[in-house]
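Reading a protein record of the kind used here takes only a little practice. The record below shows the convention in full:
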Amino acid sequence: MASPKDLETLQREVCQNQIRMLTEGIHADITFEAQDGTVKAHRCLLATISPVFAAMFSNDMVEQISSVIKLPDISSEALRTFLNFVYSGSDGSSGARLDEHWFEVLGACHKYCVTSDTLKAICAKSMEKTLNFKNCWLSLEKISILDPARVQAGPFRICLDYIIKNFDEVVKEESFLAVAMREPALIVDVVRAAREASKPVQQPQVMPRYNRY
Protein backbone atom coordinates (compact mmCIF):
# COMPACT_ATOMS: atom_id res chain seq x y z
CA MET A 1 0.00 0.00 0.00
CA ALA A 2 1.35 3.38 -1.00
CA SER A 3 2.34 5.71 1.83
CA PRO A 4 0.81 9.21 2.15
CA LYS A 5 4.16 10.64 1.07
CA ASP A 6 4.21 8.48 -2.07
CA LEU A 7 0.64 9.53 -2.92
CA GLU A 8 1.57 13.18 -2.42
CA THR A 9 4.56 12.77 -4.72
CA LEU A 10 2.42 11.06 -7.36
CA GLN A 11 -0.21 13.79 -7.17
CA ARG A 12 2.48 16.45 -7.58
CA GLU A 13 3.89 14.65 -10.63
CA VAL A 14 0.42 14.42 -12.21
CA CYS A 15 -0.09 18.16 -11.70
CA GLN A 16 3.33 18.91 -13.17
CA ASN A 17 2.56 16.78 -16.22
CA GLN A 18 -0.75 18.55 -16.76
CA ILE A 19 0.93 21.95 -16.48
CA ARG A 20 3.49 20.75 -19.04
CA MET A 21 0.61 19.78 -21.35
CA LEU A 22 -0.70 23.33 -21.01
CA THR A 23 2.55 25.27 -21.33
CA GLU A 24 3.89 23.18 -24.23
CA GLY A 25 0.53 22.66 -25.92
CA ILE A 26 1.00 18.87 -26.03
CA HIS A 27 -1.84 17.40 -28.12
CA ALA A 28 -3.88 20.57 -27.58
CA ASP A 29 -7.11 20.54 -29.56
CA ILE A 30 -8.54 24.00 -28.86
CA THR A 31 -7.08 27.50 -29.22
CA PHE A 32 -8.33 30.52 -27.32
CA GLU A 33 -7.92 33.92 -28.94
CA ALA A 34 -7.61 36.32 -26.01
CA GLN A 35 -7.28 40.10 -26.13
CA ASP A 36 -3.58 40.08 -26.91
CA GLY A 37 -2.60 36.58 -27.92
CA THR A 38 -3.53 32.92 -28.24
CA VAL A 39 -3.48 30.12 -25.67
CA LYS A 40 -3.79 26.40 -26.50
CA ALA A 41 -5.75 24.02 -24.25
CA HIS A 42 -7.52 20.66 -24.12
CA ARG A 43 -11.27 20.15 -24.54
CA CYS A 44 -11.53 17.04 -22.37
CA LEU A 45 -9.97 18.67 -19.32
CA LEU A 46 -11.92 21.93 -19.67
CA ALA A 47 -15.19 20.03 -20.04
CA THR A 48 -14.63 18.29 -16.71
CA ILE A 49 -14.33 21.52 -14.71
CA SER A 50 -16.86 23.73 -16.50
CA PRO A 51 -20.42 22.89 -17.58
CA VAL A 52 -20.23 25.86 -19.95
CA PHE A 53 -17.20 24.44 -21.75
CA ALA A 54 -18.80 20.99 -21.69
CA ALA A 55 -21.87 22.38 -23.48
CA MET A 56 -19.69 24.22 -25.99
CA PHE A 57 -17.81 21.08 -26.94
CA SER A 58 -20.70 18.59 -26.99
CA ASN A 59 -23.59 20.43 -28.65
CA ASP A 60 -24.02 21.67 -32.20
CA MET A 61 -22.32 24.94 -31.42
CA VAL A 62 -19.64 26.79 -33.31
CA GLU A 63 -17.12 25.88 -30.60
CA GLN A 64 -17.78 22.18 -31.14
CA ILE A 65 -16.97 22.43 -34.82
CA SER A 66 -14.24 25.05 -34.72
CA SER A 67 -10.92 24.64 -32.95
CA VAL A 68 -10.74 28.36 -32.15
CA ILE A 69 -12.71 30.23 -29.47
CA LYS A 70 -12.57 34.02 -29.23
CA LEU A 71 -12.32 35.47 -25.69
CA PRO A 72 -12.16 39.24 -26.15
CA ASP A 73 -12.82 39.99 -22.47
CA ILE A 74 -9.65 38.47 -20.99
CA SER A 75 -5.93 38.99 -21.54
CA SER A 76 -3.73 36.08 -22.55
CA GLU A 77 -1.72 36.35 -19.32
CA ALA A 78 -4.87 36.22 -17.18
CA LEU A 79 -6.17 33.29 -19.25
CA ARG A 80 -2.93 31.35 -18.73
CA THR A 81 -3.15 32.05 -15.00
CA PHE A 82 -6.74 30.81 -14.92
CA LEU A 83 -5.88 27.67 -16.88
CA ASN A 84 -2.83 27.02 -14.71
CA PHE A 85 -5.12 26.75 -11.70
CA VAL A 86 -7.63 24.64 -13.62
CA TYR A 87 -4.97 22.18 -14.77
CA SER A 88 -3.03 21.90 -11.51
CA GLY A 89 -5.59 22.63 -8.80
CA SER A 90 -3.16 24.93 -7.01
CA ASP A 91 -1.54 28.33 -7.38
CA GLY A 92 1.84 26.85 -8.28
CA SER A 93 4.02 29.67 -9.61
CA SER A 94 1.03 31.82 -10.59
CA GLY A 95 0.71 33.70 -7.32
CA ALA A 96 2.39 36.88 -8.52
CA ARG A 97 0.42 36.89 -11.79
CA LEU A 98 -2.82 36.32 -9.91
CA ASP A 99 -2.20 39.41 -7.78
CA GLU A 100 -2.33 41.38 -11.02
CA HIS A 101 -5.12 39.47 -12.79
CA TRP A 102 -7.36 38.34 -9.91
CA PHE A 103 -10.44 40.10 -11.30
CA GLU A 104 -10.13 38.55 -14.76
CA VAL A 105 -9.56 35.10 -13.23
CA LEU A 106 -12.52 35.54 -10.88
CA GLY A 107 -14.59 36.72 -13.84
CA ALA A 108 -13.65 33.59 -15.77
CA CYS A 109 -14.79 31.47 -12.81
CA HIS A 110 -18.19 33.16 -12.90
CA LYS A 111 -18.54 33.16 -16.69
CA TYR A 112 -17.67 29.49 -17.12
CA CYS A 113 -19.34 28.30 -13.87
CA VAL A 114 -16.12 26.98 -12.36
CA THR A 115 -17.30 26.21 -8.84
CA SER A 116 -13.90 25.78 -7.21
CA ASP A 117 -14.15 27.49 -3.83
CA THR A 118 -10.38 27.15 -3.50
CA LEU A 119 -9.70 29.18 -6.65
CA LYS A 120 -12.22 31.85 -5.64
CA ALA A 121 -10.67 32.03 -2.17
CA ILE A 122 -7.19 32.45 -3.68
CA CYS A 123 -8.53 35.24 -5.91
CA ALA A 124 -9.99 36.91 -2.82
CA LYS A 125 -6.63 36.71 -1.03
CA SER A 126 -4.87 38.24 -4.03
CA MET A 127 -7.41 41.06 -4.09
CA GLU A 128 -6.97 41.63 -0.35
CA LYS A 129 -3.17 41.88 -0.74
CA THR A 130 -3.49 44.54 -3.43
CA LEU A 131 -6.26 46.67 -1.87
CA ASN A 132 -5.40 50.29 -1.16
CA PHE A 133 -7.19 53.63 -0.76
CA LYS A 134 -7.06 54.34 -4.49
CA ASN A 135 -8.34 51.03 -5.88
CA CYS A 136 -10.76 49.77 -3.22
CA TRP A 137 -13.83 51.51 -4.73
CA LEU A 138 -13.07 50.24 -8.22
CA SER A 139 -12.49 46.74 -6.83
CA LEU A 140 -15.85 46.81 -5.05
CA GLU A 141 -17.55 48.02 -8.24
CA LYS A 142 -15.97 45.23 -10.28
CA ILE A 143 -17.00 42.57 -7.78
CA SER A 144 -20.57 43.87 -7.63
CA ILE A 145 -20.77 43.49 -11.42
CA LEU A 146 -19.79 39.82 -11.13
CA ASP A 147 -22.08 39.36 -8.15
CA PRO A 148 -25.15 41.63 -8.56
CA ALA A 149 -26.74 40.10 -5.45
CA ARG A 150 -23.74 41.40 -3.48
CA VAL A 151 -23.42 38.27 -1.44
CA GLN A 152 -21.98 39.23 1.92
CA ALA A 153 -19.12 36.76 1.72
CA GLY A 154 -15.86 36.21 -0.09
CA PRO A 155 -14.30 39.02 -2.18
CA PHE A 156 -17.26 41.40 -1.73
CA ARG A 157 -17.15 41.11 2.06
CA ILE A 158 -13.36 41.51 2.18
CA CYS A 159 -13.49 44.66 0.06
CA LEU A 160 -16.45 46.09 1.96
CA ASP A 161 -14.74 45.51 5.32
CA TYR A 162 -11.61 47.29 4.05
CA ILE A 163 -13.64 50.31 2.97
CA ILE A 164 -15.58 50.44 6.25
CA LYS A 165 -12.36 50.19 8.28
CA ASN A 166 -10.77 53.07 6.34
CA PHE A 167 -13.97 54.94 5.49
CA ASP A 168 -12.87 58.44 6.53
CA GLU A 169 -9.83 58.20 4.24
CA VAL A 170 -11.18 56.32 1.21
CA VAL A 171 -14.10 58.74 0.71
CA LYS A 172 -11.52 61.42 -0.10
CA GLU A 173 -10.32 59.53 -3.18
CA GLU A 174 -11.39 60.56 -6.69
CA SER A 175 -12.38 56.95 -7.37
CA PHE A 176 -15.12 57.30 -4.75
CA LEU A 177 -16.82 60.07 -6.75
CA ALA A 178 -16.37 58.18 -10.01
CA VAL A 179 -18.00 55.03 -8.64
CA ALA A 180 -20.73 57.08 -6.94
CA MET A 181 -21.69 58.54 -10.33
CA ARG A 182 -21.86 55.10 -11.97
CA GLU A 183 -23.22 53.00 -9.11
CA PRO A 184 -25.10 55.23 -6.62
CA ALA A 185 -27.04 52.29 -5.16
CA LEU A 186 -23.77 50.53 -4.33
CA ILE A 187 -22.49 53.60 -2.51
CA VAL A 188 -25.73 53.86 -0.54
CA ASP A 189 -25.29 50.26 0.61
CA VAL A 190 -21.70 50.93 1.65
CA VAL A 191 -22.63 54.07 3.61
CA ARG A 192 -25.38 52.16 5.41
CA ALA A 193 -22.98 49.36 6.25
CA ALA A 194 -20.41 51.87 7.53
CA ARG A 195 -23.06 53.55 9.67
CA GLU A 196 -24.12 50.25 11.17
CA ALA A 197 -20.52 49.31 11.87
CA SER A 198 -19.91 52.61 13.68
CA LYS A 199 -22.77 52.11 16.12
CA PRO A 200 -21.61 51.23 19.62
CA VAL A 201 -22.35 47.72 20.70
CA GLN A 202 -25.10 47.81 23.27
CA GLN A 203 -24.44 45.76 26.35
CA PRO A 204 -27.34 43.59 27.48
CA GLN A 205 -29.20 45.11 30.39
CA VAL A 206 -29.03 43.17 33.64
CA MET A 207 -32.19 43.37 35.69
CA PRO A 208 -31.53 44.24 39.30
CA ARG A 209 -32.18 41.49 41.76
CA TYR A 210 -34.37 42.28 44.72
CA ASN A 211 -34.28 40.57 48.03
CA ARG A 212 -37.78 39.53 48.96
CA TYR A 213 -36.94 39.57 52.65
The two ends are 76 Å apart (CA to CA). Strands lie at 30-33, 38-41, 68-70. DSSP finds twelve helices and three strands in the chain.
